[in-house]
Each structure stands twice: as structure tokens, then as C-alpha cells.
Amino acid sequence: MSCTEKTKSFDSAFYYEVCMLKMLQKMGLISQKEFDGILKTAQEDYH
């Protein structure tokens, strides 16, 4: 896998994770504070 392909793969996975987190938040299953914490961890993992 080239560097560009790897970056695209990480970007896609990160985008998917953000969308799932937003859905959970809208459903009331996670709070804004939890959303922010998980998102921060995801940013560290993917970037």
C-alpha cells in the first residue's frame, strides 16, 4: 500500500468513525463531552 493509499484509508476510517459518533450522539447514547473525548482519541490514532 502506497503512502497516498494509506492516507486515504485512514481518512475514510476517521470519517466513518466521526459519522458513527454523531449518530450515537443524536440518539442520546453519548454526551457532547464523551463525543469530544472519543474524537480526540481517534484523531491521535489516525493522524
Walk me through the structure.
The chain is an all-alpha fold. It has helices spanning about 5-25, 30-45. The protein is built from two helices and no strands. The longest helix has 24 residues, at about 5-25. It is elongated, with a radius of gyration of 12 Å. The model has no long low-confidence stretch (mean pLDDT about 85).
Oligomer: single chain
Write the element-wise H/E pattern from the N-terminal end onward. Answer: HH
What about the largest sheet? none
**Per DSSP, what share of the residues sits in E-state strands of 2 or more residues?**
under 5%
Number of continuous helical runs: 2
Distance between the termini: 17 Å
Q: What would the average pLDDT be, to the nearest integer?
A: 85
Q: What is the rounded Rg?
A: 12 Å
Uncertain ranges: none
Q: What is the overall silhouette?
A: elongated
**What is the strand tally?**
0
Structural class: mainly alpha
In percent, how helical is the residue content?
A: over 70%
SSE order and pairing:
Elements: H1 3-26, H2 32-46
Helix pairs in contact: 1-2
Using brief descriptors, characterize the structure shown.
47 residues; mainly alpha; 2 helices; 83% helix; 0% strand; elongated
Question: Summarize this, please?
Answer:
The protein has 47 residues and is mainly alpha-helical.
